[in-house]
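Need tokens for this chain, all 270 residues.
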Amino acid sequence: MADLPRDEELPSAAPSSSLSAFLQVVQGFQPQSGTEPAAALPEPVAEAETSSPKPAGKESEGDAEDKGLGRRARERSQRRREILEVARQHFARSGYTGTTLESIAKVAEFAKPTLYQFFTNKEHLFHSILADGYQDLLGIQRKAINGESNAAAQLRTLCIMFLIYYRKHLDFYILHRQFQHRLRQPADNPWHEQSRVLNQEIRDKVRGVLAKGMSSGDFLPLDADRLCSVFLESLSIYTQAFQDGGELRTATEMADEIMRLFLDGIRNRS
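Here are the structure tokens for all 270 residues:
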């Protein structure tokens, strides 16, 4: 996966200092997998200037990972990233059952046995992509929550963060949704269990923000688990607009709409 957007999601009004700090974090954040994003989506005219090329001399995350490695180790690391990139696109386009290791190997221009040097089977490959994305989200999530003091501001920043990430990594988002449907199945391998644990950790952080708001009296004392589900599903509904390709609003504008629909409905006005 590629870098998160540089400047495009700045709100039209002056952002809080903590939100500005968060945006500075995500602008320089380098996801773990080192692969490229899906095909570019239409961007608002006002945001066109922000999609500038990577500054000369700036390392990619993969370059940073490979520093200090020998030539063979660097080549192996690069080969793994290439496989993950192709596989992510295939899973997103064809689904889990419609994707084969043969098709991935063909597009990646590797012999099928090469895939088995890195991944035990298709399930291992699928969950490796999920694990990379979930680790990315957890890293940004922690910074987003630590950058704001009250629950409402934390929730808004999380909302912006999710929308930015999903917009830039739609392939990963599609895989994430595929996995949500598979969560009801028992974890019969360690990779499935790892994805389940990471996904639950992301959910728990959102739930913790909601519980904090209830504890402080800012939010009504409702069921935090159900509210968490409503909030995350709201993000998914808005992310569908990115998939359709016609959404021109920034993540901040969409987040503020979600917050008006969601937060104002649970804020305690007494």
